[in-house]
Amino acid sequence: NRRVTVRDIALAKERGERWPMLTAYDAMTASVFDEAGIPVLLVGDSAGNCHLGYDTTVPVTLDQMVMLTAAVVRGTSRAMVVADLPFGSYQEGPVQALRSSMRLIKESGATAVKLEGGERSHEQIKLLVDSGIPVMAHIGLTPQSVNAMGYRVQGRGEEAAQQLLRDAKAVQDAGAFAVVLELVPRELAAEVTNTLHIPTVGIGAGPECDAQVLVWTDMMGLTPGRVPKFVKQYADVRRVMGDAAKAYAEEVVGGTFPLEEHSVH
Ligand code: KIV
Ligand code: NA
Description:
The protein is an alpha/beta fold. Helix content is about 40%, strand content about 15%. The chain binds 3-methyl-2-oxobutanoic acid and sodium ion. 3-methyl-2-oxobutanoic acid binds near residues 23, 84, 203, 213 and 215.
């Protein structure tokens, strides 16, 4: 009953086995996914939007990621826990990336870290991997750059496609054990997947990727309002919780909860 390792992930690609990843931001939710057999959990900086109430991932701090990641590790025993390096915690260079990653590994117990950027993050990835920290890369749409590039499909057109392929090869050459492809045309994601020997983890990148990831609040219907086209909704958690809250409120107001059976003497 050991945790999933980067070796297991490499073997899955060799064997042609697909695998699912979900985000998690707290111990209890993480324990549900762990018991359900999700092999890799991502403490995404999507916690900014999905857990902390910000509009983007940009304001999320390293201290916040350390706290959330530690909770997810405590809530799980089997899943590999990957922690996002938040915006501002690795852009200064490889040494800053190493210092930030060490906190997520040593204080939180994460197995691996994830950072955004292909060619531009090559040096950071290299130092982390040389230091013994497994790195998941993230290319295509990179939400920490929302102020520069917005939320648009990446890799459309020949020039952008070539850049995405260069980014994918750069993170593999730097030693990343997997790479997230976010909002990339299906055909291009398939080409990247066939070109690389490390697994691709798609989100809005089509079915040919080696693995898939979704934000749990999106795919379980907790996120309010519209979710991206690439999300499939597997549950209606927002309605389940809202109905429970309303039923409880009605019973308290109406005097039908608590009853004798909920009382002590
Ligand atoms: O923060 C996050 O949830 C992510 C995934 C969408 C890949 O980076
Ligand atoms: Na992220």
